[in-house]
Amino acid sequence: MLMEKERQELVDYGNRMFADGLVTLTSGNISVYDPETGYMAITPSGIPYAETRPEDIVIMTLDGKIIDGARKPSSENQLHAAVYRVRGDARAVVHTHSTYATVLGIAGQNVEAVHFLLPNVMGRADVPLLPYVTYGTKELADEVREAMKETPAVLLQNHGMVAAGSSLADAYTRASAIETTAELQWRAECIGKPRLLTEEEAEETYRSYSTMYGQKDRKK
Ligand SMILES: [Zn+2]
User: With bands split at pLDDT 50, 70 and 90, how would you rate the model's confidence at 216?
Assistant: First the structure.
């Protein structure tokens, strides 16, 4: 089966996304991209995550040609392709309707650096909000493509969030951290005006995250 490993990875992450509450019902969609073949593997349209099997994953080109798979691809396949076209580093895209990120978008807010987690995963101090465009359209894909020249993730007004990554794990971590930060921002706004990290504080946090956090500098 073509892209067998990637298909299984998409099934596993789809289930995880559902279990973690980043999506409900059949909303959201995820993909991975192989620049060598130019093929994108993407979740199918309208099949519950728990029922999705590796053979339900659709393999297609960025131009929309289906290479393998009997299912219809996600309705946002043009949006996923747009991200791979504009971000040479992207190997995976996670699109969710996660509650708090979506709530902030509905209220016309960006996700801001209310916690150092956000600049850590974004390499910048916010997740910008794009104006509302109908889901599944080329117009939405074009809007995302333009915006994601400058950012690895965006909010879609009255819709949800899109995060790219260098791997599916990377895109998933970004999507999850954005949702956590959006919840903190919303909760802080309920009791007052949140203090945001300054530009300098945000820069310092993502600089130290890229060099110091985790096991990167462990002595061999
Ligand atoms: Zn959507």
Answer: low
